[in-house]
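Issue 218. Parser rejects a valid record. Input:
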Amino acid sequence: MPIGDIIYLIVAFIFAYMTFVIIRGNFQRKFDDEGNRLDLKYKKEKK
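Output the parser choked on:
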């Protein structure tokens, strides 16, 4: 396996991992510790 293919696989793995971490972080910020959505919680309090 040429060195270019190995580097390509490593970069593809790092890209996939970073994408997963970013999406997971964004998803977790939308919920509080009890599992309630924060944006809906604030709308209920404003009424």
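Fixed in the parser; the record now loads. The mean pLDDT is 86.
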